[in-house]
Amino acid sequence: MSDKPLVVAISSRALFDLDESHRIYEQEGTQAYCEYQVEHEDTPLEPGGAFTLVRKLLALNEGSIDNKPNVEIILLSRNSSDTGLRVFNSIQHHGLAISRAVFTSGSSPYRYVAPFGANLFLSTSPEDVRKALSEGVASATILPSKASHTTKGDKPQLRIAFDGDAVLFSDESERIYKEHGLQAFTENEQQTAKDPLSGGPFKEFLKALNYLQTQFPDTDSPLRTALVTARSAPAHERVIRTLRAWGIRIDEAIFLGGMDKGPFLKSFGADIFFDDQQGHCDSARQHVATGHVPHGIANEATE
User: Fold this and answer.
1) Catalytic residue among 163, 171, 271, 275
2) Assigned superfamily of 158-302
3) Half-sphere exposure of residue 5, counting CA atoms within 13 Å on the CB side?
4) Which of 21, 73, 178, 290 meets the CB 3.0–4.6 Å disulfide criterion with 285?
């Protein structure tokens, strides 16, 4: 793992605000969209939902050992190379060290996630995200958020928060809760407290982040993680023992017992939060950038 950087693949619409361009595409068609992008190719795009995350990830390369990057960002775009010139110009304008990109002229770019060896894929396309998840890549749909994407005055430390069940862990316990209720869930978690949960789609991404953290001093780490879960005692024990069994450190663990997650994520200062349940995502995106993970029993009805 030490020779391989953390690789994050991201769509252009997750990185930049392309809402106006997309509106033109939907209302006026491909030709009008292409003409608009070429006409405005020297006008920098504003930051999108995952911009701050990307900027802080790239900052982890500053002072890296032997000048080997800790993180690499790959741009995956449905633009053509012609209309994509505005995206690359915007990357340069914002000073983002992104050099690898794929432009697919309208087709889904998810198929390039695996060849790049991506640890994480972020997109505004739920369809692309589901396809990448099915291939075993941690993936999330970046949702519209009320969080500010400004680059001024924010904390330099990168803060990433995760839900537990169906994100870091499998949905095995969540299935019991959904199908048999809270009492059955609580009893099961007490009986299996010493049995580690199976890994979810974001286990390996958290593991890669945890490795990155070891490259920096504990007292001055530029990266901080949090588990923000609806679980409460006594269902907390199995979670703690699972992370211990995996050998993964998490900096903060917040057990909310069903309370709204948004205000707590704001207090943590999350640059992004990943959750499988739309309701939790709706609470979170009022305060922080949010990625919906369409995985597990909570999403089966929409599959």
Assistant:
1) 163
2) HAD superfamily/HAD-like (3.40.50.1000)
3) 19
4) 290
Residue 187 has pLDDT above 50, yes or no: yes
**Separation CA 34–CA 39 (nearest Å):** 8
Query: Mean pLDDT lowest for which of 55-64, 89-98, 137-146?
Result: 55-64
CA–chain centroid gap for 171, Å, is 18
How large is the average pLDDT for residues 188-208?
Answer: 93
Class (C level, CATH) for 6-141 = alpha beta
Decide the pairing of beta strands 100-103 and 71-77.
Answer: parallel
Q: Alpha carbon 205 to chain centroid distance?
A: 10
**Are 139 and 126 in contact, with CB atoms under 8 Å apart?**
no
Domains 6-141 and 158-302 share a fold: yes
Strand intervals (E) in the chain: 6-11, 71-77, 100-103, 120-123, 138-142, 158-162, 223-229, 252-255, 272-275, 290-292
Show the tokens assigned to 281. 């995502």
Segment 13-31 shows an average pLDDT of 89
Question: What number of other Cβ atoms are within 10 A of residue 48's Cβ?
Answer: 25
Burial class (CB in 10 A: 0-12, 13-18, 19+), 218: exposed
163 catalytic, yes or no?
Answer: yes
